[in-house]
Amino acid sequence: MSKTLVEKIWDAHVVKSEEGFPDILYIDTHLIHEVTSPQAFDGLRKRGLPVLRPKQTVATADHNVPTIDQHLPIKEELSRYQVDMLTKNCAEFGVELYGLGHPFQGIVHVIGPELGITLPGKTMVCGDSHTSTHGAFGAIAFGIGTSQVEQVLATQCLLQQKPKTMKIEVNGTLNAGVRAKDIILYIISKISAAGGTGYFIEYAGTAIQSLSMEARMTICNMSIEMGARGGLIAPDEITFEYVKGRRFAPQGEAWDKALAYWKTLYSDADAQFDSVLSFDAADIEPMITYGTNPGMGMGITQHIPATAAQPDSEQFSYQKALDYMGFKDDEPLLGKQVDYVFIGSCTNSRIEDLREVAEFVYGRQKAPNVEVWIVPGSKQVEKQAIEEGLDKVFEAAGFGLREPGCSACLGMNEDKIPAGKYCISTSNRNFEGRQGPNARTLLVSPLTAAAAAVTGQITDVRTLLNHPELA
Ligand SMILES: CC(C)[C@H](C(=O)O)[C@@H](O)C(=O)O
Ligand code: SF4
């Protein structure tokens, strides 16, 4: 029988399936961080249970960590407490921790791939919604709640209903200045922040296949922003090339065996999806969000859609979102002043993102009215950036290169955007207060963020390409 990629991986991991009940799904890898694991460990302790397979669990500290002076004790009390709890729990239960100061520390969704922990065909979970990022490798990866974290720690299994499947195809060639982030913001703007609810999405088509692994991660990362359980992309030569030689990737004979299996991981030609959508890459321009959910996005040259054009039932919340943002119906965004530029988060803080920003700003300066924070996704990204001299480019441009963590993506540490200020951000959520109480977030690609950093206003990056300084 022909199967989708999701079905192939799912079926290979079902421990037990009974009509009328959720499946018992085996979990290959469990990633944990300081925010959603403390209660789960407490639960185990209360029941006198160990972590069943500690070697399949990997921990990092990311959400609460400061991004300046990480070698010093964490000042903020709640953050310090959470990170200390993680350290204590990992030591007690025998779980590997890449905590502050460790060369592998970083945002959980950045370190899994770069360490070769994230692999095709795996089932992976984390108490974190953006676990969908790992789907870029052709894995079933999704976020779970704290009680499920406890379930997985105790049993290495999870009770899960088999999801419905959706295929989203993007075909054709991307326009100049259009990046993976624009593709996913475009898709979400078309199908809405609820358009993927209940589905596992497979991204396919020539425009997707042409993307690097890091760009594919950006796409899969935001699957959750349209309500999907997860998103994935069939592994191919680009995937295998990326994985090969990474620290925890299989080697030698194990590699050959794994590779042979990975090559079977694609949706069969006649596999049935519950829903199929198709987009043309040529229709996509650099994107920006203007509202308070990631579905409220538009091409950067467009005008904000009118409230009256929204469905009746949504007009109230639509207007509320525009009020929060300080925007009006039919306004263009180009030329509006911004206050902060945040380049970071599990969506866009990998080395390719930093390289692209550095290349763009080389020989340019940040505008005087903006503060620019570059927050690498991990210690390894930071190290690589410094080795490549990107830090010097950022410094010369007046950008602040900080230490790794979630940072202003959600402002759980001190990296908060002040009330009322506009932040051009490469992160994935623009919810009210997301980057700080009353902060206003505009989601964009790293390239569009770099353009705003240089001009101090919302800018169509295409007008600044063909940098004279670049050969
Ligand atoms: C703190 C954590 C549970 C949360 C998530 O699940 O996504 C965070 O990572 C986020 O991006 O909002
Ligand atoms: S970077 Fe942002 S989206 Fe990603 S895990 Fe951290 S808080 Fe969540």
Automatic annotation (TrEMBL):
Keywords: 4Fe-4S, Amino-acid biosynthesis, Branched-chain amino acid biosynthesis, Iron, Iron-sulfur, Leucine biosynthesis, Lyase, Metal-binding. Pathway: Amino-acid biosynthesis; L-leucine biosynthesis; L-leucine from 3-methyl-2-oxobutanoate: step 2/4. One of its GO terms (biological process) is L-leucine biosynthetic process. The keyword Cell inner membrane does not apply. Residues 7-456 form the Aconitase/3-isopropylmalate dehydratase large subunit alpha/beta/alpha domain. Its cofactor is [4Fe-4S] cluster. Its EC number is 4.2.1.33. It catalyses: (2R,3S)-3-isopropylmalate = (2S)-2-isopropylmalate. It comes from the Bacteria. [4Fe-4S] cluster binds at C346, C406, C409. GO terms for molecular function: 3-isopropylmalate dehydratase activity; 4 iron, 4 sulfur cluster binding; metal ion binding. Binds 1 [4Fe-4S] cluster per subunit. CDD domains: IPMI. Pfam families: Aconitase. HAMAP family: LeuC_type1 (MF_01026). Catalyzes the isomerization between 2-isopropylmalate and 3-isopropylmalate, via the formation of 2-isopropylmaleate. Belongs to the aconitase/IPM isomerase family. LeuC type 1 subfamily. PANTHER family: 3-ISOPROPYLMALATE DEHYDRATASE, HOMOACONITASE, MITOCHONDRIAL-RELATED. Heterodimer of LeuC and LeuD. This is 3-isopropylmalate dehydratase large subunit. The lineage of its organism: Bacteria, Pseudomonadati, Bacteroidota, Sphingobacteriia, Sphingobacteriales.
